[in-house]
Amino acid sequence: DGVTEVLAHRSDNLRDKFIEIPCSEDYDSHKRFEGCTPRKCGRGVTDAVVSREEAERIRRIAERGLSLGGSDGGASILDLHSGALSLGKHFVNLYRYFGDKIQDVFTEEDFALYRDVRQRIQQRIAQVFGISSSAMYLTKPTFFSRMNSTGAKTTHDEYWHPHVDKVTYGSFDYTSLLYLSDYAEDFGGGRFVFMDADSNKTVEPRAGRVSFFTSGSENLHRVEKVQWGTRFAITISFTCDPQHGIGDPLLG
Asked: Which residues make Cβ contacts (< 8 Å) with residue 193, sequence separation at least 6?
């Protein structure tokens, strides 16, 4: 793996850490949106946007939703926007599959907290990259992930391959992750790794920590395989293209 440098230790309490890196050419092959499409690229970590207690409340939303399904492999997905939920080797639509029973699983407060946290993360990203928050749109997929050490059963379980978000999803311009559990306490392995030419830079998850970055090849990344325990996170993705925008999830 070569040289590995830790950008953010679990024990750190970071107000704001930001590293600027030159933008890749990925954005040139897409329509540019002035005042939003990255001209300044990089990656940041903050523990000052979402409290630990809020992260624990959000993790309980993920746990309740994922308890209705779950993948046979090591990675389970819950998307409150589209309703996609891992079930065995497939996905079901949570809202269609469970119908009105969903009101017994989630509350209006859950969805209000989810929206509030999403807005705060969006504002922080806009502030750091010097763009207007209103020029960014939530995009899909935005989803909860639960990872454990169970072997992969389908390609969806293989989260450890290096990838570039903008290449996988052309609409992505800014990606963020809100961690909902603690590295080395709730799970082993599972660190987030930026793969740079000269070294790997890792982020150790901790509940409430937000890691965010521009989505092009300047931020090639992967997640280490989880060795033990359970790792919860939520991926919240943003686009500059209003045509790819999605709304916040609504209950019922």
From this structure: 4, 200, 201, 202, 203, 221, 222, 223, 224
Both structure tokens of 29: 């092959």
Q: What is the pLDDT of residues 16-70, one digit of tens each?
A: 999 999 999 999 999 999 999 999 999 999 999 999 999 999 999 999 999 999 9
Beta-carbon count within 10 A of 109 CB: 11
* Whether residue 146 lies in the annotated active site: no
Active-site residue identified among 43, 118, 146, 231: 231
Q: Evaluate the CA torsion angle 19, 51, 140, 227 in order and state its sign.
A: positive
Distance CA 164, CA 222 (A): 9
3-class DSSP assignment, residue 92: strand
Tokens found for residue 42: 């990089």
Helix 52-66 / helix 108-129 crossing angle, nearest 10 deg: 130
Whether 77 and 86 have beta carbons less than 8 Å apart is answered as: yes
> What domains lie within the chain, and their CATH numbers?
4-29+37-244 (2.60.120.620)
102 in Cβ contact with 95 (< 8 Å): yes
Considering the entire predicted model, what is its pTM?
0.96
Say if residues 78 and 62 touch (Cβ distance below 8 Å).
yes
